[in-house]
Amino acid sequence: MLVSNLELVPGKRVTAHFGIVQGSTVRAKHVGKDIFAGLKNIVGGELKGYTELMQEAREESIQRMIAEAESMGANAILNVRFATTSIAAGAAEILAYGSAVRLEDI
Amino acid sequence: MLDLIQIGIFLALLAIGYFAGSIVERRHYASIRQRERAYADVLAFMVRFPPDRVTPQRAFLVHGTVVVSSDYFKTFVASLRNLFGGRFRSYETLMERARREALLRLKADARRRGAKLVVCVRFETTTISSGWAPSMEVFAYGTALIPEGEAGAQSSGRSRLLGDGYARYAQPGP
Prior knowledge:
The complex is a heterodimer of chains A (about 110) and B (about 170).
Chain A: E1 2-3, E2 12-28, H1 31-43, E3 45-46, H2 48-72, E4 76-88, E5 91-105
Parallel strand pairs in A: 1-4
Antiparallel strand pairs in A: 2-5, 4-5
Chain B: H1 2-38, E1 43-44, E2 57-69, H2 72-84, H3 89-112, E3 117-129, E4 135-147, H4 150-155, H5 164-170
Parallel strand pairs in B: 1-3
Antiparallel strand pairs in B: 2-4, 3-4
Helix pairs in contact in B: 1-2, 1-3
C-alpha cells in the first residue's frame, strides 16, 4: 500500500478512485505519565512519554486508514492529511484521511 | 509561617525553572544545530508536486513528532506578559525548537528508510494541555521519494524545478 500526501506519484497514474478513506483513534493521557509530565513542566523541554503516545496514535490512525483502503481494493492512498481535535481535557482524537485510488505504472 | 513556606516553594520552583530550563534549552539548541548539519543531505521541500513527475519513483509517507512543554519560569513570565501584551519571546524559542526538532525527526525517518528527498512537507500543531503548564505537539509529515535504479540518476539533468538540489539527491550516497 502506497501512502503519500502528494496528489500524483511520479511514474504512475490513477486508474480508479474509491473515495475518501479515514482512520482515527481517540487517546487519553496516562495518569502516571501525567504526573511525570507535571514534574517535567517545572524544567520544560520534551515530554517523551507524550511524544511516544502521539507517535503511536498517528501510526494507528494510518493503519486503520490503510485497512479501510484495502477493503475497497485500492492499492494507494494519496493526498493524506492529518487532523487532531481535543475532545475533552486530556483526550484527543487523531485522524488521518486521504483518497483511496488504484495506481498503475505508466 | 505557612505563607512564607508557600512563597519559598514558589521562588524555588521559579529558580529551578529558570536555571534548569535554560540549560535544557541550550542543550537542545546545540543538539538541533549538530543534527541539522548531519542531516543536511536530506532535502525537505514544501512543493506540492514532485520535481520529476515522469520517472518512476518509490513514494512513501515519513513523519516526525515532538511534544514540548514550557518550564515554570516561562509560564510565569508569560502570565505577566499577558497583562501587557507584546512578544512572548520565551514561547517563540519553545515553538521554534519544536518545529526544528519535528523536521529533524522527519529527516531521520526519511534517511532510515533510504530516502534523500522529501516533498510536500506540512506542519501541524496541537495543544496537548494549556493552563499553568502549556505543552504543544508539533507534527511534520511529507512524502519521501526514492528514484528507482538508474532512472533517477538520468533524470537529474532534466529537472529544472529544484536545480542543484535535485542533482544532489540523485547522487548515490553521502
